[in-house]
Amino acid sequence: MCSSDLFAMASATQIVNPNADVVKKGAAHMMNINAARGLQDVLKSNLGPKGTLKMLVGGSGDIKLTKDGNTLLHEMQIQNPTACMIARIATAQDDITGDGTTSAVLIVGEIMKQAERHFSDGVHPRLLCEGIELAKTAVLEFVDNMKIKKDTLDRDLLIQIAKASLRTKMHAELADLFTEIVVDAVLCIRKEGEPLDLHMVEIMHMQHRAGTDSRLVKGLVLDHGGRHPGMPKKLSKCRILTLNYDLEYMRSEINSGFYYNSAEQREKMVASERKWVDDKTKLVLDLKAKACAEGETMVLINQKGIDPLALDMLAKNGILALRRAKRRNMERICLACGGEQVNNIEDMDPSMLGYAEEVYEQTLGEETYTFVEGVANPFSCTILIKGSHNHVIGQIKDAVRDGLLTADRKSVV
């Protein structure tokens, strides 16, 4: 390409974007190298257990403390296109493996640093790229030869893998605690012959006490409680009914109206509405009488609404009822406690009920949490994160996500 063509391209760039910086040949190479080295200088103090925390301050004054490379790269506003591409490569690795973000940036920065020496000697960039490709091929062959297939159900091996990741993101005492938590969570939800679904691990946080009080709940923690003051706060030997049905009078889905011309007609209409809801609620009470043995009780978790009078009927019969449960929790409840979700209340059967040894409520300030524990064969669980401050909770949540991904590995080098 002749110099006149280069000049024409530069002129066209300036026309499209007057603020664009146009650099040529060696200056462009040095700009890319300096971008990679600049990103390396920012992240190199994060590497390993001895890495330092970074304080990120947002435009609105939000403060975030972290030493996780993935979090730093997401929060930093990177303008240089080369540095932006390196950051995307590193974060893509974190999305797959859960670790190695900082290492990826440091390796790229070091390769570019070595390339600078050869540029100054007049080596063409094409030759350097071919040499890097050959080195990559040799490294992949070496890694494949060293790779050892291990039993991914070996708890001790998974603990070593998770600990290697978590100790680089938090202090040793907290990392050792969460190492066992994330490994037990992964082993809890694993199904033979099926890919691991980490969405079945619910991460719940409570701003309460210290991070070392966090624990794994082999069951479920719901962020709401019973909606009636007369309902029991703690139950044992519970049959769990998961319901997706309105226990309140449903409005019609079309634009319609009811007309009456006397007070008696209105009273009959109100009574018929009330009877409809009461009849559905009595079906739940009949199921409890049929399915619950002596000493057992029932917990009702409904994705839809329950009106106040129906709640009162359930409370008088010792049933803890939760209404408007989140959709993401409904599948987890069935996986944790067993049983099936009921979509038609007339088809309820005792075989559709799950079981939990203990269900209880805990109130912190204005928030109420419901714990479902003591399930037989859980395929869903909850990691309950506690911390005295939002900064601590945010740091732990980022580390737990990476720990879950690192514990789900098929081979170890």
What do you see in this structure?
- The structure is a single chain.
- The protein is α/β, with parallel strands linked by helices and 413 residues long.
- It has helices spanning 3-16, 25-43, 69-75, 81-97, 101-120, 125-146, 155-166, 172-189, 263-291, 308-316, 327-337, 390-407; strands at 54-57, 63-66, 148-149, 201-207, 215-217, 220-222, 234-243, 297-302, 320-322, 341-342, 354-364, 367-373, 381-387, 411-412.
- The protein has twelve helices and 14 strands.
- Strands 6, 7, 8, 9, 10, 11 and 12 form a seven-stranded mixed β-sheet that branches. The chain has a three-stranded mixed β-sheet with strand order 4-13-5.
- A hairpin with a 2-residue loop joins strand 11 and strand 12 (367-373).
- Helix 2 packs antiparallel against helix 5 (101-120).
- The two termini are 46 Å apart.
Q: Note the main sheet.
A: 7 strands, mixed
Helix content: 40-55%
Terminal CA distance: 46 Å
Poorly predicted runs: none
- Helix and strand content put the structural class at alpha/beta
In short:
The chain is of the alpha/beta class. The protein is 47% helix and 17% strand. Strands 6, 7, 8, 9, 10, 11 and 12 form a seven-stranded mixed sheet that branches. A three-stranded mixed sheet has the order 4-13-5.
Short descriptors:
single chain; 413 residues; 3-stranded mixed beta sheet; 47% helix
How do the strands and helices of this protein lay out in sequence?
Blueprint (H helix, E strand, L loop, with lengths): L2 H14 L8 H19 L10 E4 L5 E4 L2 H7 L5 H17 L3 H20 L4 H22 L1 E2 L5 H12 L5 H18 L11 E7 L7 E3 L2 E3 L11 E10 L19 H29 L5 E6 L5 H9 L3 E3 L4 H11 L3 E2 L11 E11 L2 E7 L7 E7 L2 H18 L3 E2 L1
Parallel strand pairs: 4-13, 7-8, 7-10, 8-9
Antiparallel strand pairs: 1-2, 3-14, 5-13, 6-12, 7-11, 11-12
